[in-house]
Write a structure and sequence with these properties.
The protein is of the alpha+beta class. It folds into 3 domains: about 290 residues, no CATH class; about 45 residues; about 55 residues, no CATH class. Helix content is about 45%, strand content about 15%. It has 15 helices and 12 strands. The strands form 4 sheets. The protein has a 4-stranded antiparallel sheet with strand order 1-6-7-8. β2 and β3 form a beta hairpin. This is Phage portal protein.
Length: about 400
């Protein structure tokens, strides 16, 4: 039974059967090692398409440069818990081989291409997480749900890992337990795009000369010499190769031309289709045919809210669920600061800060900290209040003040 079949079966199985359901067949899923989808396309092959490579690169880069931190909320006052081991793990040293950037980029790369990204959490003697050891998804040969507990069977490990022992990031899922790669659903169209690219490359290599028929009005008794001579001449890779046909022979191609296939238009379509599959704005993968300065700005905002924010939320919640105790989760949570994704526009950022300061949401000291500037004078800690937005109490106090 394939993983997709078992996922559907598990969704509609009676409640008493679900606890014993087994998700197997993981080996049929895609992996960096070259797993194939039903169409025969491989992950490595799909990355030969520049649009696919760039889509994965853009999404993973945006996640990688989003800083995460552990915060505690007590009566509305939020404090960064920088000394907590879980905060150190995610923001300083996930493991001895990776930086936080590498850690998050690996998640952003694995999810669209493999549907899952798995880390084994290493705890200290007190039970606090101190490291996250990466486990390639192709090493996971089975996942079983037994009596309400999810077990991961990994090559090279004698005992399976429990769900509480791992950080398991997953994307689109039919059962909520195992993710499915975007490549799996897009395989058929991506395979067509690859075939189109290969066809264009083959025609370029052959200088536009394709399969065909050599015809003549004369009767040719020995055809092998003509065929071999044609193959020999066409096998040359030089730009000035010449084929001479005598005896009134003519070459008639039997395959359609790149112009008839409209290769360029097909490749443009494949770029738009890749953008749809990966839920990314076309201009993010360098397709600017229908972009203007006005709509690119809006598309960039949509990219943050529609593409990156769900991924950031996915990571936040998995970290909160697996790296914190039940008691800690009542007041503590992980948060990804997505403001860094909008920092490129200095003018818009300045206008935003100005509105936040003048409306009293931020004080000027907080703005300096957000821009990673040193603290200024003490008076910058005071919140400003517009004179035309006094509260009733402030107005009453002003009226009572002696003149």
């Amino acid at each position: 039974m394939s993983l997709l079949d078992s996922a559907f079966d598990n969704m509609f199985a009676p409640k008493e059967q679900r606890s014993q359901s087994v998700l197997s067949g993981l080996g049929s899923f895609l992996s960096f090692g070259g797993g194939t989808a039903s169409t025969g396309i491989k992950v490595k092959e799909s990355l030969k398409l520049s649009a696919v490579y760039n889509a994965v690169e853009q999404i993973s880069n945006d996640l990688a440069k989003t800083p995460f931190g552990l915060y505690q909320d007590i009566d509305g006052n939020k404090e960064r818990l920088r000394s907590h081991s879980a905060d150190i793990l995610i923001s300083s040293e996930p493991n001895y081989l990776m930086t936080p950037y590498n850690f998050k980029k690996l998640i952003g790369t694995s999810l669209p291409l493999r549907g899952n990204c798995l880390f084994k959490t290493i705890l200290d003697n007190s039970g606090y997480p101190v490291s996250a050891e990466y486990i390639p998804w192709d090493n996971v040969f089975d996942v079983k749900l037994i009596k309400g507990e999810l077990y991961y069977y990994v090559n090279g490990m004698a005992d399976p890992l429990m769900s509480s022992e791992v950080l398991h990031f997953k994307q689109f899922s039919l059962n909520g337990l195992v993710g499915i790669p975007t490549i799996t659903f897009a395989a058929m169209q991506l395979n067509l795009a690859l075939k189109t690219q290969e066809f264009a490359t083959m025609n370029l290599d052959n200088k536009g000369v394709r399969q065909g028929v050599i015809s003549t009005e004369k009767v040719i008794k020995d055809k092998s010499g003509i065929i071999q001579g044609w193959r020999t001449a066409m096998a040359e890779k030089s730009a000035d190769r010449v084929v001479v046909l005598d005896e009134g022979m003519e070459f008639n191609p039997i395959t359609i031309t790149p112009q008839e296939l409209q290769i360029i238009e097909q490749q443009k379509f494949s770029i738009e289709d890749v953008a749809r599959w990966f839920n990314i704005a076309p201009h993010k993968i360098k397709s600017l045919q229908q972009s203007t300065n006005n709509n690119i700005e809006q598309q960039s905002l949509d990219h943050v809210s529609d593409t990156i924010q769900p991924l950031v939320t996915n990571v936040e919640q998995e970290l909160t669920k697996k790296l914190l105790t039940r008691k800690e989760r009542s007041t503590c949570y992980f948060k990804g600061n997505m403001n860094v994704l909008l920092r490129a526009d200095i003018k818009s950022r300045g206008e935003y800060y100005s509105k936040m300061v003048t409306s009293g949401v931020y004080n000027r000291q907080e703005v300096r900290r957000k821009e990673e500037e040193n603290n200024g004078p003490e008076f910058l800690n005071e919140h400003l209040t517009p004179v035309n937005t006094y509260t009733e109490k402030q107005l009453e106090n002003n009226l009572k003040m002696p003149k």
